[in-house]
Write a structure and sequence with these properties.
mainly alpha
Length: about 200
């Protein structure tokens, strides 16, 4: 018999074993202390918690309703620990060679809301295939003038492809590993973009 607790992560409530809760709590505290000097520390932690909630939701099923310590350890291995990455002032850049083992999920296609002109379909396809969105836009225009199929395909993809809303989805869309280092870098990039827009 084990004691279970209820925790709220990323807007979702989870039942979690007591030993799993203690492990998760230690992990989150170590992340908080690692990001303490960052201006965007609260946003980074919020996005990491959202990613943990996303991974926990994949663990829950009709016959499994409680997060175990094995689940927590697997999530930690996907996201990585602070010591797995060389943060600013701690070394010579991030340890990208090691980070590939923390990918957790495969490369997925989304609509890109940050670089869209209309629905973000072309920008999302460009991010997925790592080519410039304008090339995809030209292909769609060419298909549209060569029989109208481009517009039909675009509308279908607009309906079918989900929009990349979370930081994790935006990272996943680019095919990068969704770990604490990539989340931190993505949040910092968004902060810089917002700062530049406000200065204009």
């Amino acid at each position: 018999m084990k004691i279970t607790l209820s925790v709220n992560l990323g807007g979702y409530s989870f039942n979690i074993d007591e030993d799993a809760y203690e492990e998760l709590s230690r992990y989150l505290k170590s992340l908080e202390s690692s990001f303490a000097s960052e201006k965007s520390a609260s946003e980074i932690m919020s996005d990491i918690e959202d990613r943990i909630a996303e991974l926990f939701r994949e663990k829950i099923s009709g016959y499994k309703q409680v997060i175990t310590i094995e689940d927590v350890r697997e999530v930690i291995s996907i996201l990585g620990r602070p010591e797995d990455f060389a943060f600013e002032g701690e070394g010579t850049g991030s340890s990208r060679d090691d980070s590939s083992r923390y990918s957790g999920r495969s490369h997925r296609m989304y609509r890109d809301p940050d670089n869209r002109i209309l629905g973000g379909v072309c920008a999302g396809i460009g991010a997925y295939w790592r080519i410039e969105p304008w090339i995809i836009r030209i292909i769609f225009l060419a298909l549209m003038f060569a029989g109208g199929f481009g517009l039909l395909i675009y509308i279908i993809l607009w309906i079918v492809l989900p929009e990349a809303r979370t930081i994790a989805q935006k990272i996943e869309m680019r095919g990068e590993p969704v770990n604490i280092q990539s989340i931190k870098e993505a949040v910092k990039r968004e902060f810089e973009q917002v700062r530049r827009r406000m200065n204009i």
